[in-house]
Amino acid sequence: MSSPKIPRVLIIAGSDSGGGAGIQADIKACQALGAYSMTAIAALTAQNTRGVAAVEPVSPSFLRKQIEVCLEDIGADVIKTGMLASASVVEAAVSAVARKGIVKWVVDPVMVATSGDKLINSEAIDKIKKLLFPLADIITPNLPEAMALLNRTISGTAEDMLDAARELAQLGPKWVMIKGGHVEGSRIIPDVLYCSSSGESHVFPAWKLDSENTHGTGCTLASSIAAGLAQGMRMVEAVKRAKMFVWDAIRASSSLLIGGGHGPLHHSYKSVYIPQGQSIYRGRLVDYSLYAVTDDSCVAGQGMELSHAVSQAIEGGATIIQLRQKDVDSRKMLETAKKLMAICRAANVPFIVNDRVDIALACDADGVHVGQDDMPCDEVRRLLGPHKIVGVSVKTGEEAIKAQEDGADYIGSGAVYPTSTKDSSAIGLEGLSKVCKGCDIPCVAIGGLNASNCGEAIRLVRYGSSSS
């Protein structure tokens, strides 16, 4: 019985020493989407998130040899090209692949880095247009690249971009995709796709994400399309999946605090290893060890703003902050939540909203904590998605097990001792012990804890305690 066929993509492109774009982004995209990637490095770049310092092309003969040995042994279903810095490198790539009869090409005509640095010369551009475009199943220029290829301006409207795609199609590619990520002045940006043989066209509007983590988006999109084609997808299907993957990878990249410029996408957002009973915040394990629960009543009569009190709590060692506002209108609570969210984000401390999923979504909080009478945990998880923190208040081992089954990241047991913010009965240390034994996710002791009485509670729980 033969083994199942593995989708194979040979990537011919430049190496990004900073790891965000080029070959590095191509490999990560293919791996995330289930295709096996090989590489033929066409150039070495010295770059980081701020820009490109130097480019060193690989000799045409060595590029040809990389391609030949990969195709002779492993083979490829799709060839994906990226930065080809010189005319001779383009010629070498085309001649090496032509001998093997590969039928599918994804050509990303990389000319300028995200930082604005120019990557290839005009002779290379001419060779790409003359030799690669006629072979391409799809070319994927962004708006500035499309303008450079056509030597004219293109507005950011879908109609003008489609006109440009039709014009580029005359250079030989089967499909043309022009990406609208550089369109200014609109939150809704279009990508367009045009088929040269049938005249079929598609416009894909998308909400523009407010993110500095955009380094390598073009490489990622093109390699994602290549992975789809290698898996047997039709072109439109492969493009749609690639767009969704890139959008999600940008959205998830807020957890990657890398570099001081345009950061990378989070290609592995679906497959980050998380030890059992742990959750992730901005690329690291969540620390529940000192969980501060607060509201306006905590500072009433002290002549202090709640925001100042939260700052002091963080300075004093609080590892996570929860806003638990009761009996206030939504507008006021949202204003407070936004202020506290800004403080916590600056300090790299997770910010949680109690009960109110709508407030959490509106202020982009890091998570929500709900009680037994609030929205069910599985519904909260469905609304917030997999990357937010969800906590559940429990009093029994059975409730703890249910919370874990429904997708909670942690449980809050309590109240352990009577507290002014909890009018329900306390469960005591015995109840806390039963809750902790009920599940494998972190347990935070909540309610009435202070420096004089928290020692035994800390010994019972595995991850932290809460003060209010």
UniProtKB/TrEMBL annotation:
Family matches, as Pfam families: Phos_pyr_kin, TMP-TENI
Domain of life (superkingdom): Eukaryota
Keywords, comma-separated and alphabetical: ATP-binding, Kinase, Magnesium, Metal-binding, Multifunctional enzyme, Nucleotide-binding, Thiamine biosynthesis, Transferase
SUPFAM superfamilies: Ribokinase-like, Thiamin phosphate synthase
CC terms in the record's Gene Ontology section: cytosol
Kinase recorded as keyword: yes
InterPro entries: Aldolase_TIM (IPR013785), HMP/HMP-P_kinase_dom (IPR004399), PM/HMP-P_kinase-1 (IPR013749), Ribokinase-like (IPR029056), ThiamineP_synth_sf (IPR036206), ThiamineP_synth_TenI (IPR022998), TMP_synthase (IPR034291)
GO BP: thiamine biosynthetic process; thiamine diphosphate biosynthetic process
Catalytic activity, as annotated: 2-(2-carboxy-4-methylthiazol-5-yl)ethyl phosphate + 4-amino-2-methyl-5-(diphosphooxymethyl)pyrimidine + 2 H(+) = thiamine phosphate + CO2 + diphosphate; 2-[(2R,5Z)-2-carboxy-4-methylthiazol-5(2H)-ylidene]ethyl phosphate + 4-amino-2-methyl-5-(diphosphooxymethyl)pyrimidine + 2 H(+) = thiamine phosphate + CO2 + diphosphate; 4-methyl-5-(2-phosphooxyethyl)-thiazole + 4-amino-2-methyl-5-(diphosphooxymethyl)pyrimidine + H(+) = thiamine phosphate + diphosphate
GO molecular function, one term: phosphomethylpyrimidine kinase activity
Keyword Transport (UniProt): no
Domain Thiamine phosphate synthase/TenI: 290-458
Residue ranges annotated for the Pyridoxamine kinase/Phosphomethylpyrimidine kinase domain, each copy included: 16-266
Cofactor entry: Mg(2+)
Assigned EC number: 2.5.1.3
UniProt enzyme class: transferase
Pathway it works in: Cofactor biosynthesis; thiamine diphosphate biosynthesis; thiamine phosphate from 4-amino-2-methyl-5-diphosphomethylpyrimidine and 4-methyl-5-(2-phosphoethyl)-thiazole: step 1/1
Membrane-spanning ranges: none
Name listed for the protein in its UniProt record: thiamine phosphate synthase
